[in-house]
Structure formats: C-alpha cells, structure tokens
Write a structure and sequence with these properties.
Layout (H helix, E strand, L loop, with lengths): L1 H25 L4 H22 L3 H10 L1 H22 L5 H8 L2 H7 L5 E6 L2 E6 L4 H21 L5 H29 L5 H11 L1 H15 L4 H28 L4 H9 L3 H13 L7 H33 L1
Antiparallel strand pairs: 1-2
Organism: Neobacillus cucumis
Pfam family, one: EmrE
Keywords: Membrane, Transmembrane, Transmembrane helix
Length: 322
C-alpha cells in the first residue's frame, strides 16, 4: 500500500505544475519565465541532493567526456519539453494540458525504432533495433480517444487556432521528453543514478534557458515577484518532491511487475488533481460531461497500458529464465 500512496502523492505534486503554470498565465506572466525559472530554481536543490550522496564529481567528469551529447539531448529532453508545455498554458486550462500530456505514452512507443534493445536468443544476447509495440498501442489509443473527446468539448468554447496552440505544443513536448531522456540514458550507460542525470541535464540545458530568458527580458520584461515565487514552487513540487516520491515508489516495487504497473497507473491521477486544483484555486469553469468522459478514458487507458506493458515485460523475463 505504501508505494501506491507515494505514487498518488507524486501525481499530486506533478499536477501542481499544470495548475501554477495556468495561474501565472492568467495573472499576465510570460510563459518564458514560467519555463526558464523552474530550471534555474531546480539547480541548487539538486546540487544539495547530489552532493549529499557524494556523487557530484563523478557527474562532472562524465559530462566532460561527452559535453556535446549532453548539451544536445538535454536541450531536447528538458528545453523542447517544458517550454512548449508552458506556452500551451496560455491557450488551454491546466487539466486539459495534463490530460493531453498523457499522450507521451504513445509518443514514447512510436520512438522505439530510434533505439536498440537487447534480445535474448539461443546464441546469447543480441542488440536489435526496437520495434513499435502495436499491440500495446491498442491500449494507448483509449487515451487518445479520451483526449479527442475533451478537444471536442473545447471546440464549443475556443477557436480552432486556440485549441491548436494549446494542444500541438504539448504533442511536440510528448516526443521531445522521452527522446531526450532515452538518448541521455544511452550516453550515461548506467554509470549515473537518477539524481545525477537530472542535475546533469538541468545544467546542460542552461544555455537554452539563458537564451530564452534574454528573449523574455527583452520582449516581456523581468518576471514579477508573484511569478518568481510560483515558479520556485513548481521547481520544488514537480522538479524535486514529485520526482523523488515517484522514483522511491518504483524502487519499492522494483521486482514485482504487477505492483509496478499499479504505481505507474497512479500518475493518471494528475488529471483529476489538476481539475480539482483549478476549480478550487483558479475558479475555473466546471468541465462538461464530455470532458469528464474523456478524462475517465485517459485514466482507464493509462491503467490498462501500464498493466499490459508490465505483463509483456514479465513474460519476456520468464521466457529468458526458462
């Protein structure tokens, strides 16, 4: 039960990101500062964690070996992920962005041919190019159907341009996040832990955030005290607390595929928390029945996808052991 509780708390703190981004946008803050300030604020917290684990020097040495790869894939995985998420907050409510973001499950699966996987054969382990798991995608399209239902509801309230600007950047981010993170996992080769990799990617993405901040200062002026404070809260809640809780939850059930599937499925709660948060804190309009139905499909799809994916992994492990 403890891993499930930790997973739900992680989803709660992740959802704060969508709520506060929408809040800053409604208050007139620039999406540029919402995006860049989060990563500026994350650095000191991550440095403290990594130093506390006595892992800072190995990280810096690892980054020095392949600095070009670190700069490229960190910019993709963090910069081209979070900047579009914040941009979309100007055109769509946070709960809709949170629900649309779940499409990253499908996006991640579509990226499989860009990576290699180790396949066990009679001759031993063989490195083969990944294939798109079409069977697993069947479950994922339940999520896609839920997102489409929610977009249909928004058509009655928003223009086609507004809907596109609120959704298309999120879809782009859904590809950038798994692409950048998986490429960085290849670069690291298992030599760094999660906290080292997140800190390294945050540091390596700094050129992107600095350039974006300069543009933001010129185009929109400096951030307000309120936006700075809320960006700091996003950095702590999503960048630090939620990440630690989620990885702690997955560590507790690492050897049990059914429990791991349950923990992963708790992240579907982000959508519900985002809705409740916006209703209570931002006085947002109550989603209509069509949107509630879409949210239900997204959450059901996440649960089924997580269960199906881990069932396949369990079968593969069994076949290898036999």
């Amino acid at each position: 039960m403890r891993p499930i509780i930790l997973g739900i708390f992680a989803a709660f703190f992740f959802a704060i990101t969508f709520i506060l981004n929408r809040s800053m946008e409604l208050a007139g803050g620039s999406w540029i500062w919402s995006a860049s300030l989060r990563y500026f604020f994350m650095i000191p917290f991550l440095i403290i964690i990594v130093i506390g684990r006595k892992n800072l020097k190995p990280l810096l040495l690892e980054m020095k070996k392949q600095i070009g790869a670190w700069l490229l894939w960190s910019t993709v995985g963090f910069g081209l992920f979070y900047a579009p998420i914040c941009f979309s907050a100007a055109y769509a409510p946070g709960w809709l962005i949170a629900a649309t973001w779940q499409i990253t499950i499908i996006s991640g699966s579509m990226l499989a041919p860009l990576f290699y996987e180790i396949v066990m054969t009679d001759k031993g382990p063989v490195r083969k190019k990944g294939k798109i798991p079409f069977k697993g995608l069947g479950m994922s399209f339940i999520i896609l159907l839920g997102i489409i239902l929610m977009q249909m509801e928004q058509v009655n309230h928003l223009s086609l341009i507004a809907i596109s600007l609120g959704v298309l950047p999120v879809i782009m981010a859904s590809f950038a996040y798994p692409l950048g993170n998986r490429k960085m996992m290849e670069v690291c080769g298992g030599r760094l832990d999660v906290f080292q990799r997140v800190l390294g990617m945050t540091l390596a993405s700094l050129p992107f955030w600095i350039i974006l901040s300069i543009y933001g200062f010129i185009s929109a002026g400096p951030p307000s005290l309120e936006q700075t404070t809320q960006s700091g809260l996003v950095a702590i809640s999503s960048g630090v607390i939620a990440t630690i809780l989620f990885f702690r939850a997955t560590d507790l059930v690492r050897g049990d595929m059914q429990k791991l599937a349950a923990v992963e499925a708790t992240q579907s709660m982000e959508v519900l928390f985002a809705v409740i948060g916006e209703l209570l804190l931002l006085n947002s309009a109550m989603p209509a029945s069509l949107s509630w139905g879409g949210m239900a499909l997204v959450m059901i799809g996440m649960v089924l996808h997580s269960h199906f994916s881990n069932k396949i992994v369990k079968r593969k492990i069994h076949n290898v052991s036999v």
